[in-house]
Amino acid sequence: MSHEIRTPMNGVLGALSLLNSTALSQNQREYATIIEESTSVLLRLINDILDYSKLSSGSFSLTTDVFSVESIVNSVIQSCPPRNPEIEVKSIIDPDFPSHVKGDPLRFRQILQNLVGNAVKFTDKGYIHVRTCFKEDERDDYSVTVEVIDSGIGVADEAMNTLFAPFTRSANSATKRYQGTGLGLSICKSLAELMGGAVGYRTNPDCQGSIFWLKINLAEGA
């Protein structure tokens, strides 16, 4: 069912991309851009609902592959540029971090994309740092921690207890600027637990911003 739903939406986005590459009047280009942005939002909504449904039913499965954590972190950062170009966005990774690990790269990216995307959404000035470190255990596996640290608007005290509950959004999320399904963090939590890890939140002690963290176990890469 997910394939039947996602494929037409991707087809619409592809057609809109081709349309935008043709000669259009200013009004036509504005209309095409609005349709493309709205379709992208709808596709994200569909993806979130489908993923949440599979996770809730226990039918979600992970894959195992060798990948580079550093490459995925850098790729995610590049794909989530802040609206304000003066915001400092950078990756801080343990210099001894292994070049390759084994796990599910797609779901690792999905969790990180959500956490970094949220930081970008709620940060108007200052910085967004992605800090990655690890500990090696006696089996030569790695306990990996990724922290997304920002100087954004933070999380209200009354929202902290339900932050990772499904369909939960902050008060600011009700505005068009902060729109979303309210499923992103819940999906991150379920995916992290499926990978034998956890996600969490704490207030940034240096400002009113946030620190969202992910801890998962990854095997030694080949």
TrEMBL record:
Catalytic reaction equation(s): ATP + protein L-histidine = ADP + protein N-phospho-L-histidine
The lineage's top-level taxon is Eukaryota
Under the heading InterPro entries, the entry gives: HATPase_C_sf, HATPase_dom, His_kinase_dom, HisK_dim/P_dom, HisK_dim/P_sf, Sig_transdc_His_kin-like_C
Q: Does the keyword Transferase apply?
A: yes
An example molecular function term from Gene Ontology annotations: phosphorelay sensor kinase activity
Record key words, sorted: Kinase, Phosphoprotein, Transferase
Q: Where is the Histidine kinase domain?
A: 1-220
Q: Give the EC number(s) under which this enzyme is classified.
A: 2.7.13.3
Q: Does the keyword Kinase apply?
A: yes
- Identification of the protein by name: histidine kinase
